[in-house]
Specification:
Elements lengths: L2 H22 L16 H9 L6 E8 L7 E8 L2 E7 L2 H9 L7 H13 L4 E6 L5 E7 L8 E11 L3
Antiparallel strand pairs: 1-2, 1-6, 2-3, 4-5, 5-6
Length: 162
Protein backbone atom coordinates (compact mmCIF):
# COMPACT_ATOMS: atom_id res chain seq x y z
CA UNK A 1 0.00 0.00 0.00
CA UNK A 2 1.16 3.53 -0.72
CA UNK A 3 1.42 6.32 1.79
CA UNK A 4 -1.25 8.33 -0.07
CA UNK A 5 -3.88 5.76 0.92
CA UNK A 6 -3.21 6.43 4.63
CA UNK A 7 -3.30 10.22 4.31
CA UNK A 8 -7.12 10.69 4.78
CA UNK A 9 -7.09 8.44 7.86
CA UNK A 10 -4.12 10.28 9.34
CA UNK A 11 -5.81 13.63 8.71
CA UNK A 12 -9.01 12.44 10.40
CA UNK A 13 -7.14 11.15 13.46
CA UNK A 14 -5.11 14.36 13.69
CA UNK A 15 -8.27 16.47 13.50
CA UNK A 16 -9.95 14.44 16.22
CA UNK A 17 -6.92 14.75 18.49
CA UNK A 18 -6.80 18.51 17.93
CA UNK A 19 -10.52 18.91 18.69
CA UNK A 20 -10.24 16.81 21.83
CA UNK A 21 -7.26 18.82 23.08
CA UNK A 22 -9.02 22.12 22.36
CA UNK A 23 -12.12 21.08 24.29
CA UNK A 24 -10.07 20.03 27.27
CA UNK A 25 -8.27 23.36 27.55
CA UNK A 26 -11.41 25.46 28.00
CA UNK A 27 -11.99 26.55 31.59
CA UNK A 28 -15.50 26.07 32.85
CA UNK A 29 -17.27 27.80 35.71
CA UNK A 30 -20.80 27.79 36.99
CA UNK A 31 -22.33 30.00 34.34
CA UNK A 32 -25.29 27.85 33.37
CA UNK A 33 -25.82 24.58 31.54
CA UNK A 34 -22.30 23.85 30.40
CA UNK A 35 -21.52 27.43 29.40
CA UNK A 36 -18.21 28.99 30.19
CA UNK A 37 -17.49 32.19 32.00
CA UNK A 38 -15.56 34.77 30.04
CA UNK A 39 -13.84 36.15 33.11
CA UNK A 40 -10.75 34.63 34.63
CA UNK A 41 -11.06 33.15 38.13
CA UNK A 42 -9.39 36.21 39.67
CA UNK A 43 -11.75 38.55 37.86
CA UNK A 44 -14.68 36.36 38.94
CA UNK A 45 -13.50 36.64 42.54
CA UNK A 46 -13.17 40.41 42.39
CA UNK A 47 -16.80 40.68 41.29
CA UNK A 48 -18.01 39.38 44.62
CA UNK A 49 -16.05 42.03 46.49
CA UNK A 50 -17.54 44.96 44.54
CA UNK A 51 -20.22 46.85 46.38
CA UNK A 52 -22.53 48.97 44.25
CA UNK A 53 -22.27 52.56 45.47
CA UNK A 54 -25.47 54.51 45.99
CA UNK A 55 -24.36 57.14 43.45
CA UNK A 56 -22.42 56.70 40.21
CA UNK A 57 -22.60 57.18 36.47
CA UNK A 58 -21.82 54.80 33.62
CA UNK A 59 -22.29 54.26 29.91
CA UNK A 60 -24.09 51.11 28.81
CA UNK A 61 -24.40 49.65 25.34
CA UNK A 62 -27.19 47.08 25.26
CA UNK A 63 -27.39 44.88 22.19
CA UNK A 64 -28.30 41.41 20.92
CA UNK A 65 -31.67 39.75 20.84
CA UNK A 66 -35.17 41.04 20.28
CA UNK A 67 -35.73 43.29 23.29
CA UNK A 68 -36.87 46.82 23.89
CA UNK A 69 -33.69 47.76 25.81
CA UNK A 70 -31.36 48.22 22.84
CA UNK A 71 -29.04 51.17 22.42
CA UNK A 72 -26.30 53.18 24.10
CA UNK A 73 -27.07 55.17 27.24
CA UNK A 74 -25.32 57.45 29.71
CA UNK A 75 -26.87 56.55 33.06
CA UNK A 76 -26.78 58.48 36.34
CA UNK A 77 -27.65 56.65 39.56
CA UNK A 78 -28.35 58.44 42.84
CA UNK A 79 -29.67 56.83 45.98
CA UNK A 80 -29.50 53.44 44.26
CA UNK A 81 -31.99 54.45 41.54
CA UNK A 82 -31.60 55.62 37.95
CA UNK A 83 -32.27 59.35 38.08
CA UNK A 84 -31.16 60.22 34.57
CA UNK A 85 -30.60 58.30 31.36
CA UNK A 86 -29.57 59.91 28.10
CA UNK A 87 -29.84 57.97 24.87
CA UNK A 88 -26.57 58.35 22.99
CA UNK A 89 -27.86 56.82 19.75
CA UNK A 90 -31.23 56.67 18.00
CA UNK A 91 -32.27 53.41 19.70
CA UNK A 92 -31.21 54.68 23.12
CA UNK A 93 -33.10 57.95 22.68
CA UNK A 94 -36.24 56.01 21.72
CA UNK A 95 -36.00 53.81 24.84
CA UNK A 96 -35.52 56.82 27.13
CA UNK A 97 -38.49 58.64 25.55
CA UNK A 98 -40.77 55.62 25.84
CA UNK A 99 -39.70 54.16 29.18
CA UNK A 100 -36.94 55.53 31.39
CA UNK A 101 -37.79 52.78 33.90
CA UNK A 102 -36.30 50.12 31.61
CA UNK A 103 -32.77 51.48 31.97
CA UNK A 104 -31.14 49.53 34.83
CA UNK A 105 -28.56 50.27 37.46
CA UNK A 106 -25.41 48.13 37.38
CA UNK A 107 -26.90 46.30 40.36
CA UNK A 108 -29.97 45.57 38.24
CA UNK A 109 -27.75 44.11 35.52
CA UNK A 110 -26.00 41.90 38.10
CA UNK A 111 -29.40 40.74 39.39
CA UNK A 112 -30.36 39.80 35.82
CA UNK A 113 -27.09 37.83 35.53
CA UNK A 114 -27.74 35.97 38.79
CA UNK A 115 -31.35 35.27 37.81
CA UNK A 116 -30.15 33.77 34.51
CA UNK A 117 -27.68 31.58 36.40
CA UNK A 118 -30.39 30.42 38.84
CA UNK A 119 -32.64 29.63 35.87
CA UNK A 120 -29.84 27.54 34.31
CA UNK A 121 -29.36 29.72 31.24
CA UNK A 122 -27.12 28.12 28.65
CA UNK A 123 -24.75 31.09 28.96
CA UNK A 124 -24.56 33.68 31.72
CA UNK A 125 -21.13 35.27 31.55
CA UNK A 126 -19.51 38.37 32.95
CA UNK A 127 -16.17 40.12 32.72
CA UNK A 128 -15.05 42.47 35.47
CA UNK A 129 -12.80 45.51 35.83
CA UNK A 130 -9.92 45.36 38.34
CA UNK A 131 -12.10 47.15 40.93
CA UNK A 132 -14.76 44.43 40.56
CA UNK A 133 -17.55 46.22 38.68
CA UNK A 134 -18.79 44.39 35.58
CA UNK A 135 -17.67 45.62 32.17
CA UNK A 136 -19.46 43.00 30.04
CA UNK A 137 -22.44 40.75 30.71
CA UNK A 138 -23.68 38.22 28.16
CA UNK A 139 -26.85 36.17 28.60
CA UNK A 140 -28.27 33.45 26.39
CA UNK A 141 -31.09 31.56 28.05
CA UNK A 142 -31.39 28.91 25.33
CA UNK A 143 -28.58 28.49 22.82
CA UNK A 144 -30.97 26.93 20.30
CA UNK A 145 -33.47 29.79 20.55
CA UNK A 146 -33.22 32.77 18.22
CA UNK A 147 -32.96 36.32 19.56
CA UNK A 148 -33.11 35.62 23.31
CA UNK A 149 -29.57 36.87 23.94
CA UNK A 150 -28.62 40.04 25.80
CA UNK A 151 -25.23 41.75 25.77
CA UNK A 152 -24.43 44.65 28.08
CA UNK A 153 -21.14 46.51 27.76
CA UNK A 154 -20.40 48.90 30.62
CA UNK A 155 -17.85 51.69 30.17
CA UNK A 156 -16.96 55.12 31.56
CA UNK A 157 -17.91 54.04 35.08
CA UNK A 158 -17.52 56.90 37.59
CA UNK A 159 -18.29 56.20 41.24
CA UNK A 160 -19.56 59.07 43.37
CA UNK A 161 -21.80 61.77 41.99
CA UNK A 162 -20.81 60.81 38.41
Amino acid sequence: MTASRYLPTAALIGGLLYATAACGSEASTSSGRGGTAAASPSAEGSATSWQEPSSYAYTMTSSEGERSLIGTFRVTVQGGKVTKAVGLDESGRRVVEQSLGEVPTIGGLLEELERARRDNADRAEAEYAPDGHPVRIFLDHESNAIDDEALYVISAYQPGDG
